[in-house]
Fold these 2 entries.
Entry 1:
Amino acid sequence: MTDEIARKTLAAAAIARAAGDLQRKFFADRASIGMTFKGPQDYLTAADGAVEKLVMGMIREAFPADGVLGEETGGSKDTRALWVIDPIDGTANFATGIAHFCISIAYVHEGREEIGAIYDPMRDELFLARRGAFATCNGRPMKVSATTEFARAQVELGWSSRRPIRSYTEIVERTVAAGASFRRAGSGALGIAYVADGRSDGYAEIHINSWDCLAGIVMVREAGGRTNDFLGAGGLDEGAPILCGNPTIYVPLGKAAGLL
Ligand code: IPD
Ligand code: CA
């Protein structure tokens, strides 16, 4: 099995790079993006479908026995061997010409987050992690930040229209009142990878979907950080809150977000 996971880790990295190459091509030709909306402030582009098709096809060809779940086309939820894909995370950025988006691929094995691959094609950064083994950015080991005081922390607070705005503004108020600074860059997957790489001290969002966060969760844990039990909270079915951070900032951030 270990060899099989190693093979899947390499495949996740290669598939993420191929997907990122396709994203870059669409992004270079704004007219090809084909922007529509799935719901309020929920962007969908023709590129999302094309990238998901490419990724699903590559995974199914390489690992026909595994299940696949994609943001755009759905799929299996059998966590014995399951690939979870967000073809473009940061779709609003992508659709409006802002170069901050990525492909996110997670592999769940026997109910546990096992592999995470997140590729940012515009910065050519590949974040890759395997449970119990490593978390790297372009091959360099990642480590969460060493910030110990919440009053010096930089955290990302994710927002979507899936929850009332009041719940977001309350979290922002509590975070700022406790002295931390907050950002929202529009890609949950990259936001969580940045926690693993020590660029943010934590990330919190009261509702996020599995394809946005499972890959990043593997990275944060392997980089020495802490995360909530997203799958245990039923995140694969309906989404769930996400909370992650360096081991110290995790607690005050969780309190500010109302998650602890
Ligand atoms: C969204 C982004 C956003 C996060 C939302 C996601 P999309 O995904 O990751 O940063 O806050 O929860 O839905 O729409 O860009 O694929
Ligand atoms: Ca997403």
Entry 2:
Amino acid sequence: MNPTTTDAWHALGALESEPASVEPAPRSLVLGELCLDLSRQRLNPEAWSTLVRFAREMGLEAAIAAQLRGDHINNTEDRPALHSALRARADERPAAVAEAIDDTLEQMIGFAEDVRANRRRGYTGRAFKTVVHIGIGGSHLGPELVYDALRDPTDRLSVRFIANLDGHAATEALRDLDPETTLFIVASKSFGTLETRLNAEFARSWFIERTPAQQVKSAVAAHFIAVSSNLEAVERFGIDPANTFAMWDWVGGRYSVWSAVGIPLLLAFGEAAFRDFLAGARLVDRHLAEEPLEQNAPVLMALAGLFNYNFRGAESLAVLSYDRRLRLLPDFLQQLEMESNGKSVDRDGNPVACQTMPVLWGGEETNGQHAFHQLLHQGNRAFTADFVGVVRPAHDRREQHLWQLANLLGQAEAMEQGDDPADPARRVAGARPTTTILLRELSPSALGTLLALYEQKVFCQGVFWNINSFDQWGVELGKKLAERVFPALQGDERLDERSGNSQRLIDHIHDLGSA
Ligand code: F6P
């Protein structure tokens, strides 16, 4: 259905053009260890109820049921999007996927516990100390964010991540490692992604060069594991099928941190923490399914976003992490939100009649206050922002922490209220719609709730725009063109006229020196 043809859409347009007669209403919801506060969204009760009416007109309730039941909502690939099943209780999982999930979870836990208890060791009998996780996009961003958020200096195993194609990344990650105590995870749903293939090949050669020739085969088998749905390619790479953890086409890459892609988290933090992480996310799925739309956190968050993007012209969503441990949250959300909802055709292949997801960006606070907040306070482009903070820190410097929270609240208030001194250069417009999310502490379960809240918000916005949030065809073209360019860079051939601009740059590259 075209969202712009609904009655509620027209009513929302009228609401924005005529200043609301009622004051914006406070609105906060508590979800487990998380508080979602939408009071600074500048929406009065009439606006909220019109937004909820819009959600109903777009069939959101039926769409939620279809997602959780496992209908093929990813219509261009004819697949379900069943990441919620990964964090459901065993008795709640759709029958078609229950056994696969149970078996893989058990295999992951068994493997991780063996490593953590030193029952599984490197080929020379030494215990593993470092895990190197190789993967990109959805096979990287979630695990690194969660690892970075929850890691502790006392953890016995540390995890490093290699994602970037740039050879500096892998060289730097492996520089000071001891191969005898390093475990490599190659995570790639397709096992065909260029970056992961090249980085995994580099890691394997690095490892082999440092291993006695007669032990190479058994050493590689002991030190390399894979997470993938492409078992043949994994085997061709030389990883033992017994050390391969399944992924499935019904879990999208950017929704896969709950699957075997999360195995570095199990290795670093253990079974109990990983189960808490899943339980925190499950809470959101149950809440989404059971709460009326009027009190449904991901739904209201999605509706506020829609109003900002489609009726107030917000050109971006800034995610402001007021906790250093969540500094990777904007990176994770960039893939989640922009790869899911950066679309311009609807589910039937017709042009979408309204704007969809704008750019999401963000940063680590309070650093951002001394960098880009000037533009947020006095720039003349519309935006919306999410402030994310943690009430109880993991350190004991109370004064410093209270200042951190004071800055979160102060910045949000400045964006809300603005200031109107006589000097125009000092004026702050205010009236910026923002959301505040507070976690009680940065526990595995709270983090699970936070990430699933965003996932389900993204899903709801996809329903509102009538787009498929679970494919990503747009990323393919550039990959194909890089394959055409590669031989020209090697100097083996020249590109045809169509690629004249690329060929000219290749000529410059050759003039500048051989790569
Ligand atoms: O290029 C985009 C993408 O397909 C993402 O959607 C995915 O998360 C990432 O690449 C990595 O894919 P894979 O896990 O198959 O290596």
